[in-house]
Amino acid sequence: MRTDVISIQTPLTDAVVRTLTAGTAVTLSGVVYTARDAAHRRFMEFLDRGEPLPFEPLGAVIYYVGPAPAPPGKVIGSAGPTTARRMDPFAERLTALGVKGTIGKGDRSEQVADALMKHTAVYFAATGGVGALLSRHITGARVIAFEDLGPEAVAELVFKDFPAVVAIDCYGNDVFAEGRKRHQIGKG
């Protein structure tokens, strides 16, 4: 496993995604979009009606987060990752549209790994429980869609050296599956 940290800039390209391998530490900088369950369901409704998403999906990274309100003098409140598996049913469709990365916590389904391989995309894991620390790497935030969803509204964030780990790469390598296998732990 690599011990160095790779700095990457959004939007992501296929060429960049192909350089990322499972277990690699990265820092992300650039624009990233927030979306959780309710927003993903609305994305699907838009697509079913033939309407565009409220952001450009080509090269986009989506962070599964429902940030806390911004305290005085800050651009955002605590912004830790939510469990990614809840967004698994939507991954194939979004990666097919060009979404190149997602950020969350926890493992993903085989269907997500297959979608990442098929569409040259990547899943990044961020550390749960440290949302206040992660928010220090967010230098800008503005709601761009679904304001009625409150903290689950879609926002455009600006990242500066946001720390994450490549959890599933575009070759199907999965740090969670590898860890379970290495330690002979059943999938739970």
Describe the model.
- The protein has helices at about 15-20, 35-50, 90-95, 110-120, 130-135, 175-180; strands spanning about 5-10, 25-35, 60-65, 100-105, 120-125, 140-145, 155-170.
- The protein has a five-stranded mixed beta barrel.
- The model has no long low-confidence stretch (mean pLDDT about 95).
- Helix 3 runs parallel beside helix 4 (about 110-120).
- It starts with a strand and ends in a 6-residue tail after the last helix.
- The longest helix has 12 residues, at about 35-50.
- The chain is built from six helices and seven strands.
- By secondary structure, the chain is of the alpha/beta class.
Biggest sheet features? 5 strands, mixed, barrel
Structure class: alpha/beta
Query: Which overall shape is indicated by the principal axes computed on the Cα atoms?
Result: globular
Number of DSSP helices?
A: 6
Helix content: 25-40%
**How much is the radius of gyration in Å?**
16 Å
Going across the biggest sheet, name each strand in turn.
2-3-4-5-7
Number of strands: 7
Beta content comes to 25-35%
